[in-house]
Structures are given as structure tokens and as C-alpha cells.
Amino acid sequence: MNAHKNIYAIAMWFLLPLAFDFKGTEGGGSVVQALYVLIVLVAYVFYMSENYWRLVSVSPRSMALLVAFFIFSIGSVVVALLNNIPFSNTWRTVLPFLLVWLSLSYFASINMTGNWLVVYSCIIRCGSISVVFSAFYAFFVVGVSIDSARYEILSPALVPFVALLSYGYFVGFGIRFFDKICAVLGVVLAALSVTRSTVLALVGVLIAAIILAAWQKILVKNKFNGIFYTVMFTFFILILASVVGEFSIYERWDSKVFKSNADLGFDVTSISRLAEAENQLSQWLVDYKSIFFGNGVGAIFSYDSSYFDLLVASGAFNVDFLIAIQDYQGGHNFYIFVLFAGGLVFGGALLAGIIFSFIVSLAAVVSSRDSSNIIGGRDFCFEYQLVSAVGFLGFLSFVFISIGGTPLGSRFGAVYLGAIFSFALYSGCFKRLKFNA
Question: Which pTM does this prediction carry?
């Protein structure tokens, strides 16, 4: 029991501070955020100073993801320095990538044998806290009104949190009532924010969790009754929010998804994303140096002028605003951004590491279906199914989020995904397989 408590404390020390992270505001917000990061770094140094040797237990093929994030982070920073990009831009942009690397190595160094559920519970609990705090901060500190709320009310860990909690629910883990309520709250907030990519990602991971549990032959079928009541409760909360805020959620979604397309003949949000991606691609392909090594993390990008006419015609932008856009953090297409920042050498290495690790995670899930593939008995088989499923759902959440934005645009989102990825990294679950999955 004490060993479990120690593992829980070690995991919480690293994850919990950034669960209270928020979008920077004036009045010292950046100082508080720096303190959060400092606490995480202290936890990392304190623990890894005595347990770095545990990384040896990580299989070489699983180390690919750690190496990929390290290569991109260091390489793109060097390019940024050579291109005289302001260090503040570089630091803020590369920090989430570094935090993924720190989180991966930190959790891969924890002795998780027999402690998988402990770490899983810690990840779920920190996700719950982030969902609640993100909404609280947006509504009560920033002062966002409920009828105009957008992405700022959403936790950066919402999609992977719902993915892991849904899987745990469908295979019969003892999910706490507080965590279930937070998951419902997250879905309600996503609906209120009218953020299509997030809602689609949530639907995708929910379906994936059900299919995965069924594939592994551990789906608890009577859990579907709870889904029905959850959906009804969610609709009730949405209706209540509409009454309190005196607005129609249906009208907001109809205006966002259908009316703009019908009136204009195109989707404004999609056009703005294309304009951003086009500018990044044009800067990446400008010469051989940028093609191979990128422009450096923190490099400025904007909107491509060829899309200005459409964006101005939408009424949502004016020319002066479009010309003034100067951004450097993340962008809305993760894959294009890493090539823009790191080129084929550094960005390509990161993408290759992610794709390779995703395939390894998928192979582990496939092998976990048949207990005859696993040495160690039924208990170990169930443990291995949990490990492989959590790692795979982490990668799947990453893919879903990256369709409409960057999964690594925030500090907490980075450490949260890193902790989940560590489930796929840890080689203890592979050593007792009859064959390499």
C-alpha cells in the first residue's frame, strides 16, 4: 500500500501543478506559470537524479519517441538561434515539446510493474482537475460570458482525458463519481464552445474506446445503460446553460456549421486554417536550407495573401487585421508546423518517431486480444491490455486533436500526453510476451 502511495505522489508531483495552468493574462500571470514549470522541473530533477537508470529498461524501439522529441527540440532551437529568432518566441514555442520529452522520460523511469492502475488513476484525476479549473478560470477570472464562450473554456487535456476515462468505464474500472461528472462537464463545455474539431475528436475517441474494449474481449456490456443516462444528463445541462445564458446552442452551431457555408459558399474557419498552412508551407519550401532544416522553432508565420479576398468577404476579417497577423506558436496544423520549424531533418525525425511509435502501440493492442500471446496468466494479461490500450488511446487522441489544431500548444497538454505515451514506452509489458507485438 505504501509503495502505491509513493508512486501516486511521484506521479502527482509532476502532473498536478500544470493542471492549474491557464492562458497568460496581464498582472503577473506569466510569473505564476513559470512557477508551475519550475515545480515540474524540480520534481523531474529530484526523481531522475536517483532513477535515471530505469530508462535502461525501455526497449530500443520504444526509445524512438524520446529520441525524436529530443532531436526536434534541440535541432529546431539551434536553427532558430542561427536565424536570429527572438529567444522569447523560441522558448515559449519549444517548451511544450521539451515538456513532452521530460514527461515521457519521467514516467518511463517509474517502476510501474503492478502500479499501472495507480498511474492511470493519477492521470484521470489530473485531467478532471484541469477540466474544472480551465472552465473556472475562463468564466470567473477572465470573465468570459457563457453565450460567447469559445476554446478558452476547454482544458488542453480534454480529449485524451475523455478517451482514457471512457475506456476505463467500459472495461469496468472503478471510475470515481467526481471524474465521471468532470467528463460530462468537459463534453458540455465542448458543445458550448462550438469547437467542431474538439467535438468530433471526443466522438471519435469515445467510439474508439468502445471498439477497443470489445476487441480486447473485456467490454462490460451493461455499461451502455450508463451512457444513455449520461447523454440525457448532458442534454439537460446544455438546455439549462442555454436558459441561464439566454442563448440557443442550436442556433450557435447552426450559424457556425451550416449558415456560413450556405450564405458564403465556404467555411470561414477552414479558409483561415488553409491561409495559415499555405504561409507556413511557402516559407518552408523557399530554399533548400529551410526544406532540410526548417525556419527554426518560434519563427513568425501569418496568413497567405491569396486567401484575403475570401476572408474579407466573410465579414469576419478586414485587410488591416489580416496583414497584422504575426504568430509563432504552434499553428493549427501540427504536421505542417513541425516541417516549417524543423524541416525534413528535425521535423521529419519527429514525425517518423510518432508514426513508428503509433504503429508499435497499435501492434501491442492487436496482440493483447489473445491471452495465449502473453506469458504470466490472466492477471498479467488484463494488466497488459490496460497498458497497451492507454498508450494507443493516447496516440489516437493526438491524431484526432492534430486534425484541427496542435496537440502541443499548451504546457499541461504536453505533460499529460507525455504521461500517457509512457504507457506505450514502458518495455516491462513487452518482455513477457511470447513474441514481439
Answer: 0.89
